[in-house]
Description:
By secondary structure, this protein is α/β, with parallel strands linked by helices. 35% of the residues lie in helices and 19% in strands. Bound molecules: iron/sulfur cluster.
Amino acid sequence: MTKAYDYLFGPVPSRRLGRSLGIDLIPFKTCTMNCTFCQPGETPCVVSERGDYVPMQDVLTELSQWLEKGGQADHLTLAGSGEPTLHIHFGDIFRWAKEHTDIATVLLTNGALLHDPDVRADAVLADKVKLTLSAWDEISFQQIHRPAEGVTFDLLVKGERAFRHEYLGELSVEVFIIDGVNSQFSNVRKIAQIVQLISPDRIDINTVVRPPAVAGIGASPEEHLQAIAELFGPTASVTTSFKKQGFQAMEISEEALLGLIKRHPASCGQLAGEFNLPEDQMFKSLKYLVSTNRVMEEMRGTEAYFFCRN
Ligand code: SF4
């Protein structure tokens, strides 16, 4: 088994992206928001200042090594446990990819910094971009996302709309539904009106499938999500993180498993779903990592969750 990369994780199968190699440019849970539903937990560093959070040259070196070793993926995805656009040089990943590989690039962003023209100038280099919009006004934005000082709902929407005008690639918007908080039809209609202003190519309706940062934050039932999706029109569909139907099982490596658990604590069943593997096979891999002290196990409610101490 090989050592996990510091900045790369996966590839993991994704319904939308096929095999997606994650690239994490931000230290664990450094983000412009502290969303109540965040799966990696509370954000200890809620910031909006951009910087050289990790050495970009080291990330590019890992990518080169991964390619040299015959790494294969359908997408290179800027994601992880924080907000990638906080890294002042995140655009270098897209420039590198265009020069060294045919693999398409993806940016997953909460959109908080898209009001900054410098951020938009680099974000347009991604082949696909997914934004978030789950609130309908400042009060709901603060309640759901608990953003860094200076990050406002007005700025978020202005930035996301400005980006749509400048971006020619595939743009999707994820609407994250929390039961009883933004799941009521009256509130969803308001969110849908704002999403329409952004004119994305696709709208993904998602909900809580792993333990959230704040206790009591819960998922809406699937039938309700389907009804909600209709309010957004024909380009909207329900996508929950662990629906992987239609994918071949992926070969599991310690590297891929550790990389994922480090960023997203998950149960055995969820990880088995993530890699499309039988649960007993995943359970054996997890128990091995626990026995060698690289992964910890903790009961959350009635289910055991696996995580790495950061
Ligand atoms: S859900 Fe995303 S945007 Fe929200 S705190 Fe977690 S990492 Fe940041």
